Amino acid sequence: MGEVSVVTDKKAQANLDVFSNTLQELASTDRQILVVTSDSRGSGKLVPFGQKYPAQHIEIGIAEQNLVGVAAGLASTGKKVFAVSPACFLTARSFEQIKTDVAYSDNPVKLVGISAGVSYGALGSTHHSLHDFAALRAVHNLIIVAPADNFETEQAIRLAAETEHPIYLRFGKKAMPLLSEENQQFEFGKGRIVHEGDDLVLIATGETVYPALQAARQLESIHGIRATVVSMHTIKPLDYNLLATVAAKGCPILTVEEHSVFGGLGEACASFLIQNGFRNKFKIMGIPDEYTVTGSQVEIFNHYGLSDSGIAEEGLKLINK
């Protein structure tokens, strides 16, 4: 299988950098914005935020349950709270607090899971967050968003700051180029088509969208196969209208995610399609049910076929199945 494409676009930034810069801009005119961290200022790219706005930054230390509880209390008073912590710990150690103090109590905390998926790949399975979609999809009253590029990230942060409902935002660490200069619209619950085609549908989320787009370009240039590529940045609520529209083409559908194949984007799409009578060829690409290999994000993506060439290869197999 081929290597994950190296991002060479000099304008590309890590989505976390865009998150930090956007939050600083918003905080400069809105004193209600607060950031709560669990000794995660550095990894969350929030050191500049704390230096500029020390009165709007609260450090909890490595105590994720407390992080979410404090954030919920602050949000209940009308503050616009961004609670930032590594995704693997935020969504597992704090699950009870997310469920009860945030979602069930409708406290509009912006839960920000950083270094998500296998961004901490070299640190091993304890630092992978391959469970977060599955766990949080089952929690009522929680929007789940995984922006794919810098545009989606900036728009998601701006929208989250004004949204009076609980949100989980998921970010990796890699520099991500703009997916498209067109279709520059963003709304929670509305997926984004970044490439059009009639032979195959690739539905991806977060940092797997770019390799899916590269796979589509590869399929077209080498095999003459045109694929629709969807950035399904909102996992919940899923864009059922868009899903039905692309499924109506009748072509195979391949979902791609930096998450377990259980309980994430793929199973959410499959559930809708099956229950609504669609019979497209369908496959979920993600991390299988095994002890995940250790390595960099690129190495893990290559190992599990989540590279552009790996996705293209699975797309071909699905078409010819």
Automatic annotation (TrEMBL):
InterPro entries: PDH/Transketolase, THDP-binding, Transketo_C/PFOR_II, Transketolase-like_Pyr-bd, Transketolase_C
Record's keyword annotation contains Nucleotide-binding: no
Domain Transketolase-like pyrimidine-binding as annotated: residue spans: 13-178
Cofactors demanded by this protein: thiamine diphosphate
Pfam families: Transket_pyr (PF02779), Transketolase_C (PF02780)
Membrane-spanning parts: none
UniProt KW keywords: Thiamine pyrophosphate
Family as reported in the entry's similarity comment: Belongs to the transketolase family.
Identification of the protein by name: Transketolase family protein
Species: Spirosoma arboris
